[in-house]
Amino acid sequence: MLSEMSWLDIFTEPKVDQLPPDLCGLSRPLVLWYASAGDDFRPVVFTAPAYQTRLAKRIGEPLRLPEPDLFVYTCLDKEYEPWQQDEVRYEDYGTRVTCRSATPVCLDRQVVPWANDRRYAPFGSDPRRHGQPDGHILDMEILSLRSMGAFRRKILYLRYENNQSWDVLFGSGWRVNLKYVCATREGLGGGGCGKSVLEHIYKEGRIETVRGTSAEPQYVITWCDTTDKMFRRAARHYYPQLQQIAPYIPEDGNDTAHWIYRLWE
User: Fold this and answer.
1) What whole-number distance in Å separates Cα of residue 41 and Cα of residue 47?
2) Quick check: 20 pLDDT over 60?
3) What is the per-residue pLDDT for 166?
4) 62 compared with 150, residue with greater pLDDT
5) pLDDT tens digits for 111-139?
6) How many domains does the chain have?
7) Which of 107, 151, 173, 187 is the S-S candidate for 2 at Cβ 3.0 to 4.6 Å?
8) What is the 3-state secondary structure (H, E, C) of the chain?
9) Residue 178 pLDDT > 50, yes or no?
10) Confidence (pTM)
11) 186 lies in a domain?
């Protein structure tokens, strides 16, 4: 069972002693999970202390959001791009994101099985069937070209379907502190996603299995579409104190494109 193992014991390759030392020293890392992450690094910027200081000035109060130790990204091979050392993956007038290293990882399939229900995603195939790893541990450098300076963050990027990721990882006792779920780009409007992970967790009641554990998310980030409305209705069944606390990083100048919610104190 995952609950009896270190969070690092899901990996078969590389061996634990070959993983980055700053990850090996974490007994229960604080995690932000980004479902259908693609090539989007906004959560890494949003949770940085310097950005939180700027956000506090904009909204008039500090949010005091905890900073993740590890970002877990999931998506299927339709959006999973090759990772190259020292490759600039994103750059605009304010930010440059560079992949400084990419360590291939394979998971123990007896513990973390791979599956893809075609009702959830009509595309995607098991990467191991094609001689490819299950994902990578990425050392990402974020350089703010304005006022935040440079900083590094670790991303565990897995080629797993979102709902399956919940079922075999977060909802099955993986020893992490899941603090955030980000579901801002699931592709429900024609991108091939058949079921939101927020529906999977909250509307269908899978959150019940992790209530009171370290896998119970405290913050959820949504995109303001019908999924956001569904999430609010479903989550309030479990969290009557659900609070919309701030806008997420603006998109094209729209401060209300995404929202971050606090489910419990």
Assistant:
1) 11
2) yes
3) 94
4) 150
5) 899 887 766 666 667 888 888 999 999 99
6) 1
7) 173
8) CHHHCCHHHHEEECCHHHCCHHHHCCCCCEEEEEECCCCCCHHHHHCCHHHHHHHHHHHCCCCCCCCCCEEEEECCCCCCCCCCCCEEEEECCCEEEEEEEEEEEEECCCCCCCCCCCCCCCCCCCHHHHCCCCEEEEEEEEEECCCCCEEEEEEEEECCCHHHHHHHCHHHCCCCEEEEEEECCCCCCCCCCCCCHHHHHHHCCHHHHHCCCCCCCCEEEEECCHHHHHHHHHHHHHCCCCEEEEECCCECCECCCEEEEECCC
9) yes
10) 0.93
11) yes
Closest CA to 116 of 23, 231, 193: 193
- Residue 213 maps to a domain: yes
Q: Is residue 146 part of a domain?
A: no
Q: How far apart are CA 207 and CA 209, in angstroms?
A: 5
Please give the pLDDT value at position 189.
Answer: 43
Query: What pLDDT shows up at residue 215?
Result: 94
Cβ within 8 Å of residue 103, ≥6 positions away: 14, 19, 20, 136, 137, 138
Asked whether residue 217 is domain-assigned, the answer is yes
Q: What is the per-residue pLDDT for 191?
A: 47
**In this predicted model, what pLDDT tens digit does every residue of 195-206 receive, in sequence order?**
889 999 999 999
Mean pLDDT of 237-241: 97
Among 98, 78, 99, 92, CA closest to 36:
78
Mean pLDDT of all residues in 4-28 = 85
User: Please, are residues 258 and 184 in contact by the beta-carbon 8 Å criterion?
Assistant: yes
Question: What is the domain extent for residue 111?
Answer: 2-11+24-80+106-125+156-262
Cα-to-chain-centroid distance, residue 57: 26
